[in-house]
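subagent[fold] <- orchestrator: predict structure for attached chain, return tokens only, no commentary.
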Amino acid sequence: MTPNPFVGVVFHWLGGLAAASFYLPFRRVRRWSWETYWLVGGFFSWIVAPWALGLLLTDDLVGSIRRAPASALFWAWCFGLLWGLGGLTFGLTMRYLGMSLGYGLALGISAVCGTLIPPIFRGTFGSIIASTPGRITLLGLGICVVGIVLAALAGWRKERELPEAEKKASISEFNFRKGILVALFCGVMSACMAFALDAAGPIAETSRQAGTPALWTGLPKLVVILLGGFTSNAIWCVILNCRRQSGGEYLATHTSRGERVPLLGNVLFCALAGVTWYFQFFFYTMGETQMGRFGFTSWTLHMASIILFSTLWGFILREWRGTSRRTHLLIAAGIVGLILSTLVIGYGNYIAARS
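subagent[fold] -> orchestrator:
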């Protein structure tokens, strides 16, 4: 299959849209603790969806995983587990900072770490700098960082401009200081997904050898990686269930105060959130197959598109209501920078593919 980086950009945008939208169904869950709905949604994200689509779209999924090198399986699972720690705190980032600022800070850090560290570790970063397509691609990464900084700065101005009552109206648990600390940890740990996808390359190769079309060879990687993510998330959520005595919520139809719990509705909204979340990496692996020599840029494209769409959701959810014209100009400039970065990166990959 001949790579088509611009098609890859479209796939990454679709993945970014899914990632920026997954948390919305969680807002409809009623009378469940965070750890309860996070684990139920995660079960669909990290277990049900990867296996269902992997079995449907790949050839000999189980056999491909069994034939993969043990080291690839271990590191894919291990980095997935570390990434899961970032996923845990990602939900807290949304609670404390909202979609606009939370996404921007956490994913900005993740974009830089997850994009640059794999080629540096493999020793290919020098050859990337030495080529014209590589320099164009890195320019796109630089533009992406500028866009992220502008978006984060706009979020910081929004935090300063809005009165406390207004912030609480759109983000009920708003806490800037706590949210910043959580976002920093989340960003570093979330970059481990890029490392996991890189380490899981041999799993995709065994799937290709089994007859899986190139477009779907990334799906077996997700089965192993997301099992690691499920491991860390499940352990923490169960700990919280025990500590807060919320374990009974999974089956309870009424709260201790006699309030009715919409059990079926909660499960359905969690399932919708979980499957929507999974589709970010479903499209990511498709986009990755189209990026050619500079596949490491997939992580930048993914992060940029998530920040772009999450910012737009922030406007739709009126998180930016009441902010100044200057703040609106900053966030608009950030969005333009993120869009431009994806086009520049796509162009750099296009030149590399042609050469």
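orchestrator: received. Logging for downstream: The chain has a mean pLDDT of 85. The chain has 14 helices and no strands.
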